[in-house]
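Handout, section 4.2: multi-component inputs.
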Amino acid sequence: MSTTLATVASPLADKLITLVLSTSTEEDNVSGSSGQLYGIEIDNTLNTVACYIKAVNIADATSTSHSAMWKFYAPASTKQTYMIPTGTAFSVGFSAWATTTAANGTAQAFDGTGNITVTLLCD
Amino acid sequence: MALTTASFDSSVFTYRIVDQSDTVATANIDVTGGKSGNVYAIDIDNGRNVSCAIKFTLTSATPVVGTTSPDIVVWHTAGQRTQYLMPAGLAFTVLSFWATTEEADSGTTAPSGAYTNHATGKLIVTVTTS
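Output:
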């Protein structure tokens, strides 16, 4: 028996991005370029209300006026993971924000009392 | 549009597979037939030649396309096939879904047209639940 460790010359996803969100203010172009999203983990364990992580393929987004192109849900007090083996493309930039209401636009709100930690796996 | 839900003998296999072979802007409501559970996987094969948003609700008994804010939205470009896997499961009481070409909640336009060389030219959504 033996163990061999090899590095991958061209990794499938080479960016691991952590966002700590506590308002519905958007985090713009978090990967700094176009790419593919392969996974998202939402740690909502610090909140007793459910949350929605909303994202758009826009480099400079405005959470109150842009509708979510991706919306990922995490129940209250839980950690939820979405894996996307084939990836989903964003051609301009991946911008995201958090809310505790499903609605888009000015109807959305953030009523959480704790931070939401979002980890993105992308290239 | 054709919605098919396959259940298995619970003594053998507790999962359900829901397949909509032509997803449009009409809500597929309560696709598991009154059974609550967890969503474990969503497979989306966009055979349409337009990008579209596939929208899911997890609790609403009567979601209305163009009015109800979905709980989950995933955006798909034309011809793209993508799987979303939720290893821990995502709980639902009433699972429903539809698709529109607009990401906005108010969107009511069904994806149309066939993507070149796609086998069916339809938007196929397959969901695996408990």
